[in-house]
Amino acid sequence: MSTIKKIAVLTSGGDAPGMNAAIRAVVRTAIYNNVEVYGVQRGYDGLVSGSIVEMNAKSVANIIQRGGTILKTVRSSEFKTKEGRVKAYENIQKLGIDGLIVIGGDGTFTGASVFGKEFDFPIIGLPGTIDNDLSGTDYTIGYDTAINTVMDAVDKIRDTAESHDRVFVVEVMGRDSGLIALRSGISIGAEAVLIPEIEVDYDAIMKRLDQTRKNKSSRIIMVAEGDKDGGLVVAEKIKAKFPHYDVRVSILGHIQRGGKPSCMDRVLASRLGVSAVEGLIEGRRGEMVGVRGGDVAYSPFEKSIKHIDKINTHLTKIVDILSQ
Ligand code: F6P
């Protein structure tokens, strides 16, 4: 018999499309298994302040298609302190909550790992970040929607680039990771993709721009936010080398985090939400649930937040081959 009778769910860190679908799955799976379920508002801050409300099947109706998170989210500084975590534990104890599900990225899991060990408390994590920069899962909730948003935006930019014979440098999100830039870059036929994981070869990029001029009237260079130069500097370098080029920069920003989740993200969030609750009931703790090779897989928080390189060199090669 499981000891888990009452659980809480929260979202933390940057919002990601599909977080609501994940909350819905957690709440309804808990109810299905006769487990009471609470929602914590504003991430770990809500645990510290006691903003915790009971949820039912109706509280998560009509949210599967909505971006953002109905529970709201923050990057909590209070939870980083021992005093904050003690308050959080006291609030959990008061309500008799015996398990926690956290949806977020590496900061969320770092907090979960510390708290879980400090108070010997069962926590399961769901990967929710547009950056896809977590080990232990092939894809994170929100990534598919974000790369489709980038693709749609750059398709529009392409119309202007083509009409004016311009080079556009497009900067996309990914503070520490080039996974958004790489996949969306392939999808829009980028000339080059600049990502923090790989040293940039400016000579090769300039050579390619020079060579491809005869084949194309518009060119797009995709730059990840975490690139050491960033979009503005990359554009300056191109302009310095080719003063006759008409170069523009577009920084896509937070539109990449919003919008209704794609089908892939809704299904991923639903699968992981169900597995997170089932995992807790089975006695799992201190793990993130993800998908690897199409199957649900659990990995310890420490392993999932270790920034291993998820860059697939086949994809980087594809950019080079196809950009002629
Ligand atoms: O972690 C996701 C992310 O979108 C990063 O790619 C980006 O650097 C960051 O969040 C931006 O965060 P904020 O909304 O706090 O500016």
Could you characterize the architecture of this molecule?
The structure is a single chain. With 324 residues, the protein is of the alpha/beta class. 42% of the residues lie in helices and 18% in strands. The chain contains eleven helices and eleven strands. A seven-stranded mixed sheet has the order 3-2-1-4-5-10-11, sandwiched between helices. A four-stranded parallel sheet has the order 7-8-6-9, with helices on both faces. A hairpin with a 2-residue loop joins strand 10 and strand 11. The mean pLDDT is 96. The site of 6-O-phosphono-beta-D-fructofuranose has 10 residues, from loops.
Task: Put the structure in a nutshell.
GO terms for molecular function: 6-phosphofructokinase activity; AMP binding; ATP binding; fructose-6-phosphate binding; identical protein binding; metal ion binding; monosaccharide binding. Its cofactor is Mg(2+). This protein has 324 residues and is α/β, with parallel strands linked by helices.
